[in-house]
């Protein structure tokens, strides 16, 4: 990589029948040449008339004029019909993700940003055996456990358990899982966000954090011992705290990230605070991965209604995290 030219972010196409291609074009127009990224996909899937230029390597994105989308071409078997995913393209979607990981692991790209996919569509069309992006990326990287963080300027929040039924959360929430989640979050705050001494607030599982056992025992039996052990190592941890009082502005000012016990406990606050600008991060990988915090939006694909704010925020965060790491 030439001196003074950071490796561009590799942006995957996601499901080409969703809003991924159109928001990539919008993001390039909004960001111009200030933040270099390369879109990996089939240019036939871009909106008609969208300005794009093919590049041979990610570094070629630096030489593409502002407003023109740099494209690392990846041909697909079929065209894309907005709102109507084609199973024939499923294997191509998966291959683009793997290609982006190869590029970032080789140093040709500085980070990976993934556009939304449809997990069921990939399963039906390509035998995709993973619940989603996060698990597939962990598989490609050979990592045992990763952590999902949702971030916006006002809040960073991590759910310890993710896409499982609420009834299964108490069984899934083990001391090992909680400890790994806290360690990975703590390390990422230092390495990727430049916070030398992170402050982490931790929710309880039950209402009022169990209220001394009147509303549940997981706080005393499971959560508190893990926090005590990690505090003894020097981590700045608060909790277990009642989740219903952790996310107002005054409370958020007292910590750098919050760790919650389950999906909605974590995601409702951030989607209320910043629905359009939230970013999904995967912590614990040997490379940086961000993603917009929304889905394929088939219902509005191709209609010019898609909001690129979350993708723009995801690209910007990937760029800043790479700078923090020195990648």
UniProtKB/TrEMBL annotation:
SUPFAM superfamilies: Isocitrate/Isopropylmalate dehydrogenase-like (SSF53659). It catalyses: 4-(phosphooxy)-L-threonine + NAD(+) = 3-amino-2-oxopropyl phosphate + CO2 + NADH. Catalyzes the NAD(P)-dependent oxidation of 4-(phosphooxy)-L-threonine (HTP) into 2-amino-3-oxo-4-(phosphooxy)butyric acid which spontaneously decarboxylates to form 3-amino-2-oxopropyl phosphate (AHAP). This is 4-hydroxythreonine-4-phosphate dehydrogenase. Belongs to the PdxA family. InterPro entries: PdxA (IPR037510), PdxA_fam (IPR005255). The active site is located at the dimer interface. Pathway: Cofactor biosynthesis; pyridoxine 5'-phosphate biosynthesis; pyridoxine 5'-phosphate from D-erythrose 4-phosphate: step 4/5. Substrate binds at residues 133-134, 271, 280, 289. GO terms for molecular function: 4-hydroxythreonine-4-phosphate dehydrogenase activity; cobalt ion binding; magnesium ion binding; NAD binding; zinc ion binding. It is an enzyme of class 1 (oxidoreductase). Pfam families: PdxA (PF04166). One of its GO terms (biological process) is pyridoxal phosphate biosynthetic process. A divalent metal cation binds at residues 163, 208, 263. It is found in: Cytoplasm. Homodimer. Binds 1 divalent metal cation per subunit. Can use ions such as Zn(2+), Mg(2+) or Co(2+). GO terms for cellular component: cytoplasm.
């Amino acid at each position: 990589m030439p001196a003074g030219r950071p490796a561009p972010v590799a942006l995957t196409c996601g499901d080409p029948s969703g809003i991924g291609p159109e928001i990539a074009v919008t993001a390039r127009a909004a960001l111009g040449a200030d933040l270099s990224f390369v879109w990996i996909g089939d240019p036939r899937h871009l909106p008609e008339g969208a300005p794009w230029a093919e590049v041979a390597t990610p570094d070629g994105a630096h030489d593409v004029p502002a407003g023109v989308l740099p494209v690392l071409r990846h041909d697909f078997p079929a065209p894309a019909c907005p709102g109507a995913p084609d199973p024939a393209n499923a294997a191509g979607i998966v291959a683009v993700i793997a290609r982006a990981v190869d590029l970032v692991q080789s140093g040709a790209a500085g980070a990976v940003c993934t556009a939304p996919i449809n997990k069921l569509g990939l399963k039906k069309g390509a035998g995709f055996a993973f619940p989603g992006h996060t698990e597939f990326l962990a598989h490609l990287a050979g990592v045992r456990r990763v952590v999902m963080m949702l971030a916006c300027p006002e809040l960073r929040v991590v759910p310890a358990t993710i896409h499982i039924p609420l009834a299964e959360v108490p069984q899934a929430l083990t001391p090992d899982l909680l400890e790994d989640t806290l360690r990975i979050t703590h390390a990422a705050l230092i390495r990727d966000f430049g916070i030398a001494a992170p402050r982490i607030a931790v929710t309880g599982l039950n209402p009022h954090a169990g209220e001394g056992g009147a509303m549940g025992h997981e706080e005393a039996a499971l959560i508190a011992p893990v926090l005590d052990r990690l505090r003894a190592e020097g981590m700045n941890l608060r909790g277990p705290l009642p989740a219903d009082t952790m996310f107002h502005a005054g409370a958020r000012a007292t910590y750098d990230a919050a760790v919650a016990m389950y999906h909605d406990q974590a995601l409702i606050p951030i989607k209320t605070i910043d629905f359009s600008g939230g970013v999904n991060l995967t912590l614990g990988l040997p490379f940086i991965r961000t993603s917009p915090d929304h889905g394929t939006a088939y219902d509005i694909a191709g209609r010019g209604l898609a909001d690129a704010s979350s993708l723009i925020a995801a690209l910007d965060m990937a760029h800043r995290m790479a700078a923090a790491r020195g990648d």
